């Protein structure tokens, strides 16, 4: 569907008008033009039915790359090959005449994508209905809000029968309901077409995309599985914000003192073996203290485990039952305002739920001393989960909920597998205390 080989793009920084005039009058080159490189040697492919995400900080070259693919920019070197009709939503108002009404802009925008007048006539009602802007469709778009712009623009590209969709941060604008509507459309579109998706939302990248490309200062820093690239990008952002390197807990655990990670593990399933076959069995792998982590290194995660209501360390739990997630932290230095938290993610990297101790103790900062071990326990009802593999990411930081320094983060502190489930819709099911129907009269 799409192939990019060694794409590079340089932009010239032209002389100012008075500098160009002086150069002409003096017949000299006193003010030479300069240039900067937006992209360097970018190579990747997009196969039919594949969704590729593009992540990177502002100025990384994401928009430049998309414009080259769309044909609105030409590469300085390299080649790009695209098969099929491409529809793109690159920026607000692109391809729209502000003085035209929404209806007139539908015809204008769809014509740009190659639809005939009769084809647009057939799709017009569906486009307007999908956008949900109602009577505003007959108002000039210069009076539209940014959310209305996105609604109309996305509605057009959703109905032009494209083979490749290119979307650049458009879903960050507008209301949540329409964003979810777009996500559902994209998930359906994936069955027949290909998508290039730019977003700063790593959850959206891991949910929608098969692979991801990480751009940094015009260079391709990483390409691969969407979840792995998103996690590496997150580590990089933390390291840049905190000026720290990746830290392996294995290098620190030599000083963890008297704490022992040995537990008498029990398997409580014998008590429930006669229950329904729809029981939500969750098998838990043990914590690997030598796993990969990143952070400042001021603290390490010594252990992560589940306990049952009797306080026993368990290798198996049941969805819908009360569990306790325990995180053992070993500070390397004295730390004020310690924050310990966790996130539960599915196989695609979507965050299902999470919590941290800062939420419970906002008025009582947790201060810890170097060389000791501290246990944080989160007690909650385990939701019912669909069958599949899951991970629990655990982080140790200090500061506040909004501003903190990450000391140790483990993407996959615990891995567990769910077998047997009655959950067929949604990401998880919520345990319900009761369900009954009674007559009102």
TrEMBL record:
Q: Which UniProt keywords apply?
A: ATP-binding, Nucleotide-binding, Transport
Q: Which CDD domains match?
A: ABC_KpsT_Wzt, Wzt_C-like
Gene3D superfamilies hit by this protein: abc- transporter (atp binding component) like domain (2.70.50.60), P-loop containing nucleotide triphosphate hydrolases (3.40.50.300)
Question: What Pfam families does the record tag this protein with?
Answer: ABC_tran, Wzt_C
Q: Name one GO cellular component term.
A: membrane
Provide the ABC transporter domain boundaries. 19-242
Gene Ontology molecular functions: ABC-type transporter activity; ATP binding; ATP hydrolysis activity
Q: Which residues fall in a coiled-coil region?
A: none
Query: What is stated as this protein's family in its record?
Result: Belongs to the ABC transporter superfamily.
What is the recorded name of this protein? ABC transporter ATP-binding protein
* Originating organism: Neptunomonas marina
Give the source lineage, highest ranks first: Bacteria, Pseudomonadati, Pseudomonadota, Gammaproteobacteria, Oceanospirillales
């Amino acid at each position: 569907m799409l192939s990019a080989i060694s794409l590079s793009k340089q932009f010239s920084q032209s002389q100012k008008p008075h500098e160009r005039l002086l150069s002409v009058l003096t017949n000299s080159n006193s003010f030479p033009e300069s240039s900067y490189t937006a992209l360097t040697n970018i190579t990747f492919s997009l196969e039919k039915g594949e969704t590729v995400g593009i992540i990177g900080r502002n100025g990384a070259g994401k928009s430049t790359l998309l414009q080259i693919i769309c044909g609105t920019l030409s590469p300085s070197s390299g080649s790009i090959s695209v098969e099929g009709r491409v529809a793109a939503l690159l920026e607000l108002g692109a391809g729209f005449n502000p003085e035209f009404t929404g209806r007139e802009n539908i015809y204008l925008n769809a014509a740009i994508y190659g639809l005939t007048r009769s084809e647009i006539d057939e799709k017009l009602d569906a486009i307007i209905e999908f956008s949900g802007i109602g009577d505003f469709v007959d108002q000039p778009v210069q009076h539209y809000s940014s959310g209305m712009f996105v609604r109309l623009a996305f509605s057009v590209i959703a109905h032009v029968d494209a083979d490749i969709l290119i979307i650049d941060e458009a879903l960050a604008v507008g209301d949540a309901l329409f964003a979810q509507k777009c996500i559902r459309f994209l998930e359906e579109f994936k069955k027949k077409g290909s998508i290039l998706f730019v977003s700063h939302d790593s959850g959206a990248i891991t949910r929608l995309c098969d692979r991801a490309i990480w751009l940094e200062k015009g260079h391709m820093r990483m390409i691969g599985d969407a979840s792995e690239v998103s996690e590496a990008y997150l580590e990089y952002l933390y390291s840049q914000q905190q000026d720290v390197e990746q830290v392996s807990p294995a290098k620190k655990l030599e000083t963890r003192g008297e704490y022992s990670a040995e537990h008498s593990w029990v398997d409580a399933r014998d008590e429930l073996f006669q229950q329904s076959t729809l029981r939500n069995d969750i098998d838990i792998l043990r914590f690997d203290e030598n796993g990969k982590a990143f952070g400042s290194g001021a603290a390490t995660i010594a252990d992560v485990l589940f306990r049952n209501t009797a306080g026993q360390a368990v290798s198996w739990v049941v969805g819908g039952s009360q569990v306790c997630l325990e995180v053992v932290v070993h500070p390397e230095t004295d730390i004020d305002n310690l924050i310990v938290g966790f996130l539960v993610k599915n196989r695609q990297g979507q965050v299902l739920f999470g919590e941290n101790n800062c939420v419970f103790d906002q008025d009582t900062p947790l201060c810890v001393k170097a060389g000791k071990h501290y246990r944080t326990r989160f007690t909650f009802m385990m939701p019912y989960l669909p069958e599949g593999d899951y991970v629990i990411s655990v982080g140790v930081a200090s500061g506040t909920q909004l501003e903190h320094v990450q000391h140790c983060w483990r993407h996959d502190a615990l891995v567990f597998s769910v077998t047997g489930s009655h959950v067929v819709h949604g990401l998880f099911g919520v345990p319900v205390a009761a369900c009954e129907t009674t007559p009102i009269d």
